Amino acid sequence: MTKSLKAPLIGISTYGRNGTSAFSLAATYVDAVRAAGGMPVLLPPGEPNPAEVLERIDGLILSGGGDIDPSAYQGSSHPCIYNIDSERDEFELTLARLCLEKDVPFLGICRGMEVAIVACGGTLVTHVPDEYGMEVQHRLVPAPGHLYPAKHPVKILSSSRFGAIIGKSEIEVVSWHHQAVRNLAPGWRVVAESVGDYVIEAVEHQHCSFAIAVQWHPELSPEDISHQRIFQALVKAAGTRKVVPIQDAIA
């Protein structure tokens, strides 16, 4: 069967529990989904049945946030690793795997891109400046303990599905990360790199109808149509997908 013609329901993962045991998420994610015609629903970590979550939504966004525990990708500790949250890691890694198995339209943003790759067996660069230097700043650190987004250009593979969505071969992005993909997982391919240091900035899955992940934050560029096309494409894919019973998808 197919979904009704109602606005597609787009699940967005939230940040983990904060110091007051509250879940939260930047409103820019919600705004971007609404502007694209979707209906956002927030998904806090800790849900005991991620498969049932995916039965109830039409598309998924894994949001940004703290770092994945390095043990998930045979990585090593680093002083710059922050906000490790095992509850969030477990929930999102499972969601990412199930999304690909069930072909649920999927968008990973920043941490969400890293989750998608690690979920499939890929690995990460623990701290970008250690291996790529500071020629391109992927986040600004004006003073100890203070982090701000940075802007830099990204080169896009025009022949990719992602390139067709963006409609340009190069765009400026708002970036806020210190890790990146090192080794791709099977099925994924690189579709964008940062200009200057060639850090992997976007990937797409070659066997899913819509599975894209970007290292930058397109939700922080609400006035730029190139970035908003990413959310529009996700909502469109979510509104036209076939519903596959979860038991068939993971059999």
UniProtKB/TrEMBL annotation:
Q: Which PROSITE patterns match?
A: GATASE_TYPE_1 (PS51273)
Which GO molecular function annotations are given, in alphabetical order? hydrolase activity
Pfam families in the record, alphabetically?
Answer: Peptidase_C26 (PF07722)
The protein's UniProt keywords, in alphabetical order, are:
Hydrolase
**SUPFAM superfamilies in the record, alphabetically?**
Class I glutamine amidotransferase-like
Q: Is Ligase given among the entry's keywords?
A: no
The protein here is known as Gamma-glutamyl-gamma-aminobutyrate hydrolase family protein
* UniProt organism field: Laspinema olomoucense D3b
